């Protein structure tokens, strides 16, 4: 025989939303900065391409 719980939480139904996956820390953080990951990738690609082109092209001659 299993022992029944000593007490039943009367607020359990009202607190259930806190454990829903939508309110997890990961979901909150990912929706806090929408597009941040894409921006990091785009900026990294820009820096890599810019460094590559600056090494490939000869320096410009300055005329005084």
Automatic annotation (TrEMBL):
<comment type="function">
    <text>Accessory subunit of the mitochondrial membrane respiratory chain NADH dehydrogenase (Complex I), that is believed not to be involved in catalysis. Complex I functions in the transfer of electrons from NADH to the respiratory chain. The immediate electron acceptor for the enzyme is believed to be ubiquinone.</text>
</comment>
<dbReference type="GO" id="GO:0032981">
    <property type="term" value="P:mitochondrial respiratory chain complex I assembly"/>
</dbReference>
<dbReference type="GO" id="GO:0022900">
    <property type="term" value="P:electron transport chain"/>
</dbReference>
<keyword id="KW-0496">Mitochondrion</keyword>
<keyword id="KW-1133">Transmembrane helix</keyword>
<feature type="transmembrane region" description="Helical">
    <location>
        <begin position="27"/>
        <end position="49"/>
    </location>
</feature>
<keyword id="KW-0813">Transport</keyword>
<dbReference type="GO" id="GO:0005743">
    <property type="term" value="C:mitochondrial inner membrane"/>
</dbReference>
<dbReference type="Pfam" id="PF08122">
    <property type="entry name" value="NDUF_B12"/>
</dbReference>
<dbReference type="InterPro" id="IPR012576">
    <property type="entry name" value="NDUFB3"/>
</dbReference>
<keyword id="KW-0249">Electron transport</keyword>
<keyword id="KW-0999">Mitochondrion inner membrane</keyword>
<keyword id="KW-0679">Respiratory chain</keyword>
<keyword id="KW-0472">Membrane</keyword>
<comment type="similarity">
    <text>Belongs to the complex I NDUFB3 subunit family.</text>
</comment>
<keyword id="KW-0812">Transmembrane</keyword>
<protein>
    <recommendedName>
        <fullName>NADH-ubiquinone oxidoreductase B12 subunit</fullName>
    </recommendedName>
</protein>
């Amino acid at each position: 025989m299993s022992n029944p719980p000593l007490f039943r939480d009367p607020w359990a139904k009202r607190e259930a939303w806190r454990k829903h996956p939508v309110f997890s820390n990961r979901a909150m953080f990912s929706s806090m900065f929408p597009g941040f990951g894409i921006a990091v990738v785009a900026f990294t690609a820009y820096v890599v391409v810019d460094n590559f082109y600056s090494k490939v092209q000869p320096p410009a001659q300055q005329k005084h």
